[in-house]
Amino acid sequence: MMSGPMLTTYSMWSLFRNCRKACDWRYLHELVPLERDHNLSFGSLIHECLEIWHRDRELKRVLDHIDRACPNQAQDERELRDWHLATAMMKGYAARYPTEEFEVVALEKTFKGKIVNPATGASSRSFVLAGKVDGIVQIGDEFFLLEHKTASQIDADYLERLWTDFQIILYAWYVERTLGLRIAGILYNILVKARLQQGRGETEAEFEERRRRLAAKSKTGKSSAKRKLPESDEAFQERLAAKYAEPGMFHRETLYISRDQFAALQAELWELTQAFLDARRRGVFYRNTAFCFHYHRPCAYFPLCRSGGSPNVIENLYHKVPPHEELRDGGGEPPQANCARRANACCGRHNPPRQAGTGGEPQDCLCGSHIEEAPAF
Ligand code: SF4
């Protein structure tokens, strides 16, 4: 017997829509893969950096945060790559936006509200919806949700696809009711991930082989080739800094919300709640195998589904993590994410940050224990 309405997020409903079985694994069995998704983890780090930057506008604090988030960079190549990229990205960002056209109203703002049947106006007794927005900003006399994105590249397709970002539009509706601000639209703040790699240099054997090949081609039978040494951290940072000085590495896109979208999204959300209740009552969460490779890589639960839910696979590849991590540690990431760093960062910092633009009074703790309640609507 459940004690009250089930806390849900858009991530959960989105996953339920895409593959009911994945939703079952994550939200009812509470399973998360042990191996975390690296892309999501990097995106989370940048979200944290942007929160610090927009709160304090002190680059040193941002860079210190990156240092702390990558403590094993001397031994761990991937962590070193993240450190380089995050450091250069945030230095470039600070240089690109030394001043802002907007005032920050709130950062990493959580909300919780009822799910309403738009046909009758009745609230669901089974579910409530919670979420977190990266920020709320004011431009002139209009309010916008600030939404950070890290992208591999920005092109016309990418910008077109922002229209399908229903999560943020639904969140705008909840934020309006929670805070009493009319949200005019979404300000997408897009940061591109540079694809540069740090030169790793040649091993002695690689160098000898290259020199041998050059000498074989040379008329003299000799080669003056020198061994390529690994690129220093300083030299790589310089190359990255030059890249982040290019205009296409940061982009802001404003999308105005049509009020009709609110009603359509509420209706869809209500339909999902009814389908979930039915699936849970019957204990049937069917698999959508068309979704298994949706992101051009196997779904996080692929080994589990393939093994028919084998307890051995669960024991070796998954662990239990309570759902809705995004409410605790900031960022709104998909439920497949398993980012120990972000979870730890949250749980270790019950230290309310300062709220920008309001004279520095404490803001909600990010642990999710101070979720703003929306009034009944
Ligand atoms: S592996 Fe496929 S069927 Fe299984 S949960 Fe993932 S998407 Fe669904």
What features would you highlight for this structure?
single chain; 377 residues; alpha/beta; 7-stranded mixed beta sheet; two-stranded antiparallel sheet; 43% helix; 18% strand; binds iron/sulfur cluster
Strand tally is 9
Structural class: alpha/beta
H/I helix tally: 14
What is the global morphology? globular
N-to-C span: 26 Å
Low-confidence residue ranges: 330-377
Q: Provide the residue-averaged pLDDT.
A: 84
- Cα-atom Rg, whole angstroms? 24 Å
Q: Report the biggest beta sheet as strand number plus sense, adding barrel if it closes.
A: 7 strands, mixed
**Proportion of strand residues:** 15-25%
Helix content: 40-55%
Distinct compounds present: iron/sulfur cluster
Order of helices and strands: EHHEHHHEEEHHEHHEHHHEHHE
Verbal overview:
The protein has about 375 residues and is of the alpha/beta class. The protein is about 45% helix and about 20% strand. The chain has 14 helices and nine strands. It has helices at about 10-20, 20-30, 40-55, 60-70, 75-95, 155-160, 165-180, 205-215, 235-245, 260-280, 300-305, 310-315, 325-330, 340-345, and strands at about 5-10, 30-35, 105-115, 125-140, 140-150, 185-190, 250-255, 320, 370-375. Strands 1, 3, 4, 5, 6, 7 and 9 form a seven-stranded mixed β-sheet that branches. Strand 3 and strand 4 (about 125-140) form a beta hairpin. Helix 1 (about 10-20) crosses helix 2, helix 3 (about 40-55) packs parallel to helix 5 (about 75-95) and helix 4 runs antiparallel to helix 5 (about 75-95). The longest helix has 24 residues, at about 260-280. Mean pLDDT is about 85; it is low at about 330-375. Bound molecules: iron/sulfur cluster. Iron/sulfur cluster (SF4) binds next to helix 2 and helix 11.
